[in-house]
Amino acid sequence: MLSFESLVKRLWPSAAYSVPFLGLDFSGKTSLLYYIKFEADVITPIPSIGMNVESLPLRFAKGDISLTGYDISAGCGGPRFARQMARFYLPASAAVIWVVDSSDRKRLEESVEDFEYIMHFLQEFHLTQIPVILLAHKSDLPNTIPVDELRRMFWPHCKNHPFAIFPTTCRRPYKDSGVPVVLAWLYSQIQASELLGKHSEGQSSTKSEEQEVKEMTTYSGSTNKLARRLEDFLTRAESDSTPETFLQQFRELNLPAWDHYTHIRLAYVILTTYGRQKGKNMIFDGLQHYIANSKQATGRAFHFTMTYFWIQIVHFGIRSSVVTSSEAPSPHNDSSTTLTSVSDASTLVDTPGVVTASTPSTDDFFRFLLINPYVVDGNLWTDYYSKDVMMSPKAKEEMVLPDKKPLPSLLVRDTIRR
Ligand SMILES: Nc1nc2c(ncn2[C@@H]2O[C@H](COP(=O)(O)OP(=O)(O)OP(=O)(O)O)[C@@H](O)[C@H]2O)c(=O)[nH]1
Ligand SMILES: [Mg+2]
Prior knowledge:
alpha/beta
């Protein structure tokens, strides 16, 4: 069984303080994350799936601090997906940032309800020292909900957490956006908890591993199907063979299993090792060969659109897993680019003739799963395709576009990166 500490160490390998941006969909989490990173409103976000993870090196008069900011979106797994995933991510947080779209009164109750769930979770896990920051976001818009009203609604759920509420916006110059005040408060809280020895390391290590495991498995709110599947995937990833052995097994028609986990790992290992252009063809050809020649896949037929769909989803997830410390010019940090990720993004560029292969480690796949938990959902395609379209003879033979919504766009992801 996996402990929180091991999960988090693999997810955020550096020593940075991890800070999740949580809140309802459309509240502005992704916008804020990149606004902080670039000190400017430079991205056009699309509804996120999975997570966006960014290094945020911050500079203050009293010293520097490195945060790993990430937003967990509701994503493809349904509106409750993010909160069901909380148990995997929150225990090592240095703070929790809850984003409210203060211009949206209609969804206020829903936001309070989800916030209450997260607070309840923190209580249950005795994570009561974690500072909680509520952002009354989109403060540039007219008729926003007054900060005092938000305080009255949210604060009672905060119990003993250090709590603060700030209006913020990404639509004003950085210095007038409210964000610098938020970060200064966060910095002071982290400093204070360092002095008192209460940083996450101390918080989670005060419990025995046995106690953690028991709580993980018995917590009433966290028993949804996808969370259990993620746990199952992570457990399998713990004891996987090396990527080289795995590829060898694929070539020799001798994979350990023929199931969703194996297919996702296959796409991941091939795309990260060979890049998208070459990898995509290897997956198409390799799967057709496997299905035609292996008893393991007896009765299965190659499905072109389904295969393409998963290549796209896994490729998108690989892009999301790249954490950089300063890959774009940031006023926080002007040192040269350093990639600290599972795989250098350049391995994935479709540039003919250029193959900058790098075989991922087993840990990399583990981390990929944590950042992109939605890939565990074998029915994810139903978010994009109707059954009639996906199961049509045409879709089995050739690539058919989704009829419900467009596939996640790699171009948008790349725009964010620049
Ligand atoms: N007026 C205004 N709009 C904002 C602000 N911040 C974000 N938005 C817009 O709000 C919308 C939602 O922003 P996102 O950053 O995608 O929200 P999110 O919480 O990440 O949404 P999901 O990924 O779906 O969970 C986008 O249209 C943004 O441009 C802001 O400060 N002011
Ligand atoms: Mg988002």
